[in-house]
Design a protein that fits this description.
Shape: globular
Radius of gyration: 17 Å
Strand content: 15-25%
Number of strands: 8
Largest sheet: 8 strands, parallel, barrel
Structural class: alpha/beta
Strand order of the largest sheet: 1-2-3-4-5-6-7-8
Bound molecules: phosphoenolpyruvate
């Protein structure tokens, strides 16, 4: 099981350092793997706090080139050097607000794998797509397009995050999430053969301490990507504890 906190564009420097310390203490006895993804400007400071603990460091984004004239961007090698282990790729907010295509996301996934980082590929459908009744095919196709050119999954993690459940307080039911995860698992097996079933599948979308256990009880849910609830160390630790 793996539980990652996505702090998005939240926290000041002091708050980020304090939150990282609190998460380190609150999850010290956890059995699940844990990670936090602070804003990129605080990665270094948070790296100091989590070093030597069981909390992994994650970035919220990356650019798929090693170096060069890419103003404002950060490379996989830079993230690795600062101590990152995880990198979110293709979060729905980046796809919707910043226009990231699945083709670009696929390059990010490949670049992370080449730099020995763990890409956390985010996929999910809109409410309109779900209401259209084809959500599982749409999301599996989005995942396949976001893995174009990736020959071997390495440490790849996939996060299913229904867009209508992110930051809305609406969570996919455990049955909806399980059905989607099963569909993604079978598509991953089509893509990667015997390496497919081992790929960790996280659920994200308004995961809270009071709904985490039921989600984690589903056979194809291997953890969570947590947004809002990860800004509270005690609540985040309760989600981590629910992961066993
Ligand atoms: C997210 O942004 O990845 C997320 C799951 O957010 P929230 O938990 O706030 O819905």
């Amino acid at each position: 099981m793996l539980v990652l906190g996505n702090w998005k564009m939240n926290t000041g420097l002091a708050e980020a350092v304090r939150l990282a310390s609190d998460v380190v203490h609150a999850t010290a006895d956890a059995r699940a793997d844990v990670g936090v993804c602070p804003p990129s400007v605080w990665l270094d400071a948070v790296a100091e706090r989590v070093r030597g603990s069981r909390v992994g460091l994650g970035a919220q984004n990356v650019y798929p080139e090693a170096s060069g004239a890419f103003t404002g961007e950060v490379s996989p090698g830079m993230l690795a050097e600062i101590g990152c282990r995880y990198v979110l790729c293709g979060h729905s907010e980046r796809r919707a607000i910043l226009g990231e295509s699945s083709a670009l996301v696929a390059r990010k996934v490949a670049a992370c794998l080449a730099a020995s980082l763990t890409p956390v590929l985010c996929v999910g459908e809109t409410l309109e797509e779900r209401d259209g009744g084809q959500a599982e095919t749409i999301v599996a196709d989005q995942m396949t397009a976001s893995l174009d050119g990736v020959d071997a999954p390495g440490s790849l993690v996939v996060a299913y995050e229904p867009v209508w459940a992110i930051g809305t307080g609406r969570t996919a039911s455990p049955e909806q999430a399980q059905a989607m995860h099963a569909a993604l698992r079978s598509r991953l097996t089509e893509c990667f053969g015997t390496d497919g079933p081992a790929i960790q599948l996280l659920y994200g979308g308004s995961v809270k301490p009071d709904n985490a256990a039921e989600l984690f009880g589903q056979p194809d849910i291997d953890g969570a990507l947590v947004g809002g609830a990860s800004l509270d160390a005690a609540g985040f630790a309760a989600i981590v504890a629910a992961a066993g």
